[in-house]
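Troubleshooting entry. The earlier prediction with glutamic acid gave an output that would not parse, so I re-checked the input for stray whitespace and re-submitted. Clean input:
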Amino acid sequence: MSGTTEVKQKPRTAKDIIGPDKDPHLDEDNPFEAMMARFDHAAELLDLDPGIYRVLRMPEKQMIVAVPIQLDNAEVEVFTGYRVVHNTARGPGKGGIRFDMRVTLDEVKALAAWMTWKCAVVNIPFGGAKGGVICDPANLSISELERITRRYTAALLDVLGPESDIPAPDVNTNERVMAWIMDTYSMHQGHPVTAVVTGKPIEMGGSLGRREATGRGCMIATREALKYLGLPLRGTKAAVQGFGNVGSIAAALLEREGLTVVAASDISGAIYNPNGIYVEDAIAWVREHRYLAGYPGAEEVPAEQVITMDVDVLLPAAVENAITRKNAKDVRAKVICEGANGPTTPGADRVLEEKGVFVIPDILANAGGVTVSYFEWVQDRMGYFWEETMINERLEGVITRSFLDVMSVAERHSVNMRIAAYMLAIERVAAVHRLRGLYA
Ligand code: GLU
């Protein structure tokens, strides 16, 4: 007998838990794994305390609810709904609700955690949450969507609340859906509770500037990045993937700053004009015809070409996994501004970094939306509403300051903007956990 006894070392930092062969089988397309890969990387660099690391890996609450409704043809259909509250250390859970056939629990978990990091990056007093219902809004009537929304809200009455968890719009949800959520919740409380949801119609406690806020934040972040890189605004070419609330408004505002938007895409395909698309015109076309296809001021090209187009700025503003290990090597943009959540996979991150592409990460780039959601929540609670100029000025202040905060972490630690943003966010959330301690 050699007499050696194995002494189990207590992990000293997150690094000891993550171990040397982290993510050997990383599933790039799974947003939760993609989020965790970046989280682990940042946690290691921060030498994060193992206890806090364990706490932050696990969402606080994960709800799966049945959403039965009667369809217009009198049949009963049961939809699946999710709500995940990732973390509430810094404030109530905050995050959108999406209606989409691609919704999965792993996706909602990732999106909820991204909300925690996003709110921390821009330093607003919210935690992170997200919700989704697996459904196809294109094939549902307005009244079916209303019944889904109300039943989903009713199933989550114990979770939602202006002090606990505050939804907002996301993919395929809008102001009208937020109005139904507010109404359902309020009817159960017995009085109007405007602050339970943000992104509401202006008439009922919504905020001026909220609808444009995510796109405006993208524009501000892109402008800061170009300034940092010493690139001009005028004549700089941009392409936008996704022409919904985020992509179309970001494109219009970038155009106003002097950039030339040469391409845009949506699920109907892509349009391209080397001299620039007149974005307001394209928005008006979509308002009337629903999709970009058929827009007369540009030629039609395959949608996937937008990602690899010869432009200076690329704005992925659709859903996850647009830029992957496969197409990242063909990206020609110098700056990527992530309007969507999780549009770039970790494998693509590596390729883009080697190519020297400057990526403004989602948790900073698209944080304008939740920032104005915060302003909306504050206004609802005060019962006093601000002028749009004040909202836009304050948004401008938050995004520029956050850009510089992330930049300084990136420079100090010699890491890219994404890892810097995670480091800044994780450290801010961890600081509160240290102060609050564990209640047991
Ligand atoms: N859905 C948006 C996002 O992903 C906004 C969330 C909010 O305003 O709460 O950031």
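This one parsed fine. The first strand starts at residue 61 and ends at 70.
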